[in-house]
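Notes from the 1:1 (GR / supervisor)

We went over the backlog. Supervisor wanted to see one worked example end to end before approving the batch request, so GR pasted a single chain during the call. The sequence is below; no edits were made to it. Supervisor asked that the structure be written out right there so they could see what the output format looks like.
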Amino acid sequence: MRGGAFDSDSDTQTETDPDNDYRRGYHLAVPRGATLRIIRHGDGTFQCPVCPGLANRWTRLNEVRDRVVGKAKSRTLREDNKKKYSQHRALAQNEGWML
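Structure output shown during the call:
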């Protein structure tokens, strides 16, 4: 999927490639609300979208579920980083792992 970006120097549109951005390590915004879901890669591994910098990719959905639900119920995370706590909680609810 490609999108257009406005180049203010030349007043023209340029093509951007989100896949290239990912390969170069550019940070992408974390989805919010109902769009926040577990990422499944083409090689069959899973990743938490709230923690994209985490080197771990899980091969079983149960492993990522345990991590996400653990973070969503973590009292320490709730006190230290409310944003990540609430994003993990929303992710767990969206996936049907928490009510």
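Supervisor's comment: The chain has a mean pLDDT of 75.
Batch request approved.
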